[in-house]
Amino acid sequence: MDDIHILIIPGSLRSDSLNATLAAFASRQAHVLGLKTTLMDLRRLRLPIYDGDLEASTGVPKEALQLQQAIAGCDAVLVVTPEYNGFPTPLVINAFDWLSRITATESQAPGLSTTANKPVALMSASPGPGGALRSMNFLRQYLQMAFQMIVVPQQFALGRAHEAFDEAGELKDARSVQSVKTVLTAVAALAGALRAARQAEQH
């Protein structure tokens, strides 16, 4: 698909995380579709909980710039997150909160300009029947309203996720596999269209 690059961000990376498993599966399916992917480990950023006093005293952590650079370097983003009490994980929200605090300098753009008009897709997994659908609904609103990202309508919530994968981490249900491909195809198509529009403006 014209060498589209998708940044995949799992919202949980604990041992045996179902969402990390789904993110890895989505990455493999993306390669089948001819897409490039990068899996990002938000835990490695070791970002502190956002605190205005901390920001005032020490500034935005340099690790937040790594997230900004990763988003700037991709054509689209895929967030795969469980729900904690119906909401997206603090790991995801805190990382994006810090991203929003990055201000412009001579060498870097502000954080919010990096996310503006960036295509993003959502997936989730849960042992429950709803597949963490509630977290996706909140995350859709959060990314659209606060970060001006373009969230594609297609999304995938994997219910009974603890029973959904085989020992190799592959989804056993053909409909679920197709749902993953549908989300990936949709976000890649949007990213490709936006890239083509930008190129047309330059000529």
TrEMBL record:
Domain named NADPH-dependent FMN reductase-like: residues: 5-162
Example of a GO MF term: oxidoreductase activity
UniProt-listed InterPro entries: Flavoprotein-like_sf, FMN_Rdtase-like_dom, NAD(P)H-dep_reductase
Domain of life: Bacteria
Record-linked Pfam families: FMN_red (PF03358)
GO cellular component: cytosol
Name this polypeptide is given: NAD(P)H-dependent FMN reductase
Source species of the chain: Roseateles toxinivorans
